[in-house]
Structures are given as C-alpha cells and as structure tokens.
Design brief:
By secondary structure, the protein is mostly helical. It folds into two domains: 36 residues, no CATH class; 146 residues, Ferritin, core subunit, four-helix bundle (Ferritin), CATH 1.20.1260. Helix 2 runs parallel beside helix 4, helix 2 runs antiparallel to helix 5 and helix 3 runs antiparallel to helix 6. The chain is elongated and about 50 Å long.
Length: 185
C-alpha cells in the first residue's frame, strides 16, 4: 500500500514539476515515476520557511476576519485571503516534499499573539485592526514573492511567486482599504 501511495504521489508530482526534478528510470524501483529529492539552498530554504509561515498567519487571520468581521467586506476579504494563502501553501507543500524543507504548520509565536490580541477587540475596532494586521503580513509576503520572482534561482519557486503575486497584491490593496476606510474609492 505504501509503495502504491508513493508511486501515485510521485506520479502527481512528476506532472507538476519541471523535468530537472525527475529522476532517471534506473535509479529507483518505481521507474520513470520516481522523483529525485533535491537539496534546497540556504536562500530557497529561507524563502520556503518564511513564505510558509506568512501563509499560515494569513490563513488564520483570514479565518478570524470571516468569523468576527462586522462588515461584509471584511468577511469577504477574510475568505479570499484564507483561500489564496491555502492554495499557495498547497503548492509550496509539494515543493517542500521534494526539497525536504519542513514548512511551519501554524503561525509563529508572534503571529499567534497578534491573533489573540485581535480576538480581544470590540467588533467596532476589529475590522480596521484585522485589515492593518493582514496588510502588514501581505506586505511582507508580497515583498518576499517579488524578490523570489526577480532573483530566485529555482524555477519552480519563481513560478510559484509569479503565480500568486497578482492576487496577493490585490488583497494588499483591500487590506489597506479595511485598515483606513477613507482610502476606499
């Protein structure tokens, strides 16, 4: 059973990844569907861990905005940011399997503290505060993805960055509007 699961996972990964990630047929009992485990460079390791941590924090922030948002725009924003961050994390997780870079499974201690503080706010102050907090996270993630898409050496990580940048930039604009309603059009 494990061999079939491994073969199926390798097959799915082989379709999603560029040719250099594929192993030769003679190197594995799984044949052409085997995936070669590549070692991540220090910069790739740092990018993946940072993007994964920010993604986890954005998912948690988005879910909180969905649950506690007073305004429809806040709840809609929370849903969109959580879904887009989760989609990015799913792709990043596939790449982490190949490079053996463990991704964070939850927001870091600082982000968990910020989420606890957001939960304590009154509903009137919550929408602005969650917009500000999400905006800070998105600004960091967008900057990280821009850097990776421009200067990253790994083709798959560059492609991931380029794929998610437009949507995350849009969410950053929405977060800024939530944080400062005077900037809304």
């Amino acid at each position: 059973m494990k061999m079939h699961l491994l073969a199926a996972s390798a097959c799915v990964l082989s379709m999603a990844l560029p040719a250099p990630a594929l192993a030769s047929a003679s190197a594995s009992p799984l044949g052409a569907h085997a995936v070669q485990v590549a070692r991540a460079s220090h910069s790739e390791w740092k990018f993946m861990r940072t993007a994964g941590g920010l993604g986890q924090a954005l998912i948690a922030t988005g879910k909180l905005a969905q649950a506690r948002g007073q305004d429809v725009a806040t709840r809609r924003f929370g849903k969109a940011v959580a879904q887009e961050s989760a989609a990015m994390l799913r792709e990043l997780s596939l790449l982490s399997l190949l490079t053996q870079v463990p991704l964070p499974s939850r927001p870091n201690r600082q982000e968990r503290k910020a989420l606890r503080e957001l939960k304590q706010l009154s509903t009137g102050a919550f929408d602005r505060a969650v917009g500000k907090h999400a905006g800070e996270l998105l600004q960091r993630l967008v900057a990280l993805l821009e850097q990776e898409s421009a200067a990253g050496k790994d083709q798959a990580l560059r492609a991931l960055a380029r794929e998610y940048l437009p949507a995350l930039r849009d969410r950053l604009g929405e977060a800024r509007s939530l944080a400062d309603p005077a900037t809304q059009p």
